[in-house]
TrEMBL record, chains A, B:
Name of the protein this chain belongs to: ADP-ribose pyrophosphatase YjhB, NUDIX family
Protein's UniProt keywords contain Hydrolase: yes
GO MF term (any one): hydrolase activity
Residue ranges occupied by any Nudix hydrolase domain in the UniProt entry: 48-171
Record PROSITE patterns: NUDIX, NUDIX_BOX
Pfam (any one): Zn_ribbon_Nudix
Keywords for the protein's UniProt record, in alphabetical order: Hydrolase
Cleavable signal peptide: none
Needed cofactors: Mg(2+)
Superkingdom of the organism of origin: Bacteria
Length: 187, 187
């Protein structure tokens, strides 16, 4: 996952249009929430959740994890994932992050998990993916990319609760042979 | 759907932290995309897709549509939906919009569709929902909220392609008796 936006975002202090100071108040347009409103030009600044998109790459009995070379959670293990960008779909973003973080070539499968993390204003989406080989070429955000069988997963060293929940559902589904779409709230 | 953010967002001209002018360039941190970077304090401003969350409310054989009282697409029909807010989950946002736009009380069902609209930087998510009654109390964004059977749907007057695609999949699934999770790219 990229270092991009901080998990808890700082307030908007200045207007993106004209640079004047903003103040948080409820707009006069029927809105019910406080927004950062420009004191000079009146521009209303909306703040909304971000999507994090990634894959659960599988090769036979094993899944691919990446050891993080960035904060937060340096040294912990994660699935390849990062902030969705403009001009891409959730699936395209998931493939891009898999290439950037693991240097792994995959064939994308179906959506597997949608996890809400309202405490940090994020929605995480993971797709199943089939690895083309066990050769990886991780980018600068990853110390090591390697395959783990279920009994090798470093459960105590998983970087994010969304990754842990996704992995748990995957191994449970694999035992039943039926892979659903899992919607989970991390509260 | 709320009037919130414009479909194609204007560039970020000033820094949200200090108000100084920004310039678009690729940051020096390994990023590959142009970002609005502050000329004074160096703050990097990320721009990411927004989620629109809503429901497909059902009462027996009929579904609920709302006639829009706001631009864009004033007078066209839509499912209740709007921009996801901070501090809520996708499901909570879908319920909130159903209450705000239709004044409809529902029991939320499973996620039904996830639609990417990369041309406007949006992801739309619709949940199935069961209406408690045929009494609605629409808000100021809605001219009228009413129930339609399949052969009454005003297909030529549907406000958004994501709503049309969701309704089409719903009636198709209803014929088979099996409701899946539909991932669709609107390109």
């Amino acid at each position: 996952m990229k270092t991009g936006a901080p998990p808890r975002r700082p307030p908007i202090r200045h207007c993106r249009e004209c640079g004047a100071p903003t103040a948080y108040r409820v707009p006069d347009d029927g809105d019910t929430r406080q927004r950062a409103i420009c004191s000079a030009c009146g521009t209303i600044h909306y703040e909304n959740p971000l999507n994090v998109v990634g894959t659960l790459p599988v090769l036979g009995e094993r899944v691919l994890l990446c050891q993080r070379n960035i904060e937060p959670r340096w040294g912990k293990w994660t699935l390849p994932a990062g902030f969705m960008e403009l001009e891409e779909t959730t699936a395209q973003g998931a493939l891009r992050e898999t290439d950037e973080e693991a240097g792994a070539q995959v064939t994308l499968g179906p959506l597997f998990s949608l996890l809400n993390v309202p405490s940090v204003g994020q929605v995480h989406l993971f797709y199943l993916a089939t690895l083309h080989s066990d050769r990886f070429n991780p980018g600068h955000e990853t110390i090591e990319a390697r395959l783990f069988s279920e009994d090798e997963i470093p459960w105590e060293q998983i970087a994010f609760r969304t990754v842990r929940a996704t992995l748990e559902r995957y191994f449970a589904d694999r035992r039943t042979g039926h892979f659903g779409v899992h919607c989970i709230d991390i509260v």
